[in-house]
Each structure stands twice: as C-alpha cells, then as structure tokens.
Automatic annotation (TrEMBL):
PROSITE patterns: RASGEF_CAT. It holds the Pfam family RasGEF. Residues 1-157 form the Ras-GEF domain. Transmembrane segments: none annotated. Keywords: Guanine-nucleotide releasing factor. InterPro entries: Ras-like_GEF, Ras_GEF_dom_sf, RASGEF_cat_dom, RASGEF_cat_dom_sf. The keyword Oxidoreductase does not apply. This is Ras-GEF domain-containing protein. It comes from Xenoophorus captivus. It comes from the Eukaryota.
Length: 157
C-alpha cells in the first residue's frame, strides 16, 4: 500500500516536488542528483528487462516477449497503450520515466505562463502540479515484495 507520509522515494532516492519542477524549468536532470539517479535506475531496470528477454531459451520465446513489449511501448498515438495499462495499474508500479518527463516539458512549453500578459496562468500551474503529484504518489508506494539486495547492488554498479 502507499504511504501517506508525504515522503517520496524513487528506487531508494528521495524525490520532492522541487526536483520535478526544476526539471520542467531547466529541461535537464543535470544539477538534480535525485532525479538523475532515478533516471539511471529506470534505465538499469530497462536493461535488466532486456537481459531477461534475451535469456529466453528459444528465438520464438524471445520474439513473443519482444512482440508484447513492442505493442505495449509503441510511441504510436503518444504511447496510448502504455498509458492505458499504466492507468489501470494500482499501487506499486514502475513508470517509464522518460514518457512522464516528456509530458512535463510538453505541458510547460504548450501553455503560456501568463494570460493577457498580466495574469498568472493558474490552469498551467494546476496541470503541472497534478502531473508531478501523480509521479510523487507512485514513488511513495511500497513494492509488494522484498528487495533482493544482490540485485540492487548489481543494478547500482
């Protein structure tokens, strides 16, 4: 179940609202160590999944898994399949962080900061807050399993 303490951890690193906000403003994880490590960990998980697929015994088994993932992770219609499955998942889940970070940048660029050159665009701020808050919520969910310390060490090396 998810923690309600307000603490957010992404693969063991504390992430806060300002980490995501900094990314939106700068468009980079540089000088943002918590988010940079989270992206590195997501990339490590992705590489681990690739390794698990390639370790299947037959080419047919490997093709079956790559076919399923290809459909799920297709960028067609702005990742519609991934977004549908992701939104159906409840509790602990590992996001494709790149998709969500791209959404933050797109939202920041698409909507103006000000309306009528003098009024702060509260709708834009609300949308950014909502997207960032969703990311923070998933980082606070505890996995339904115990961490394998050897695997964690391998992924961090």
């Amino acid at each position: 179940s998810c923690s309600t303490s307000g603490r957010c951890f992404s693969f063991g690193y504390r992430l806060v609202f300002l980490d995501y906000r900094s990314y939106v403003v700068r468009g980079s994880v540089r000088d943002n160590p918590a988010l940079e490590r989270s992206v590195m960990m997501c990339n490590g998980v992705s590489q681990w999944v690739q390794l698990m697929i390639l370790s299947r015994h037959t080419a047919q088994q490997r093709a079956q898994v790559l076919s399923e993932f290809t459909e799920l992770l297709s960028s067609r219609s702005n990742y519609i399949n991934y977004r549908r499955v992701y939104n159906e998942c409840k509790g602990f889940k590992v996001p494709i962080l790149g998709v969500h970070l791209k959404d933050l940048i797109s939202l920041n660029e698409a909507l103006p900061d000000y309306i009528d050159e003098e009024k702060i665009n509260l709708s834009k701020l609300q949308h950014l807050y909502s997207n960032i808050n969703d990311l923070l919520a998933i980082h606070s969910c505890k996995p339904p399993f115990e961490a394998n310390k050897d695997l964690l060490h391998l992924l961090t090396v």
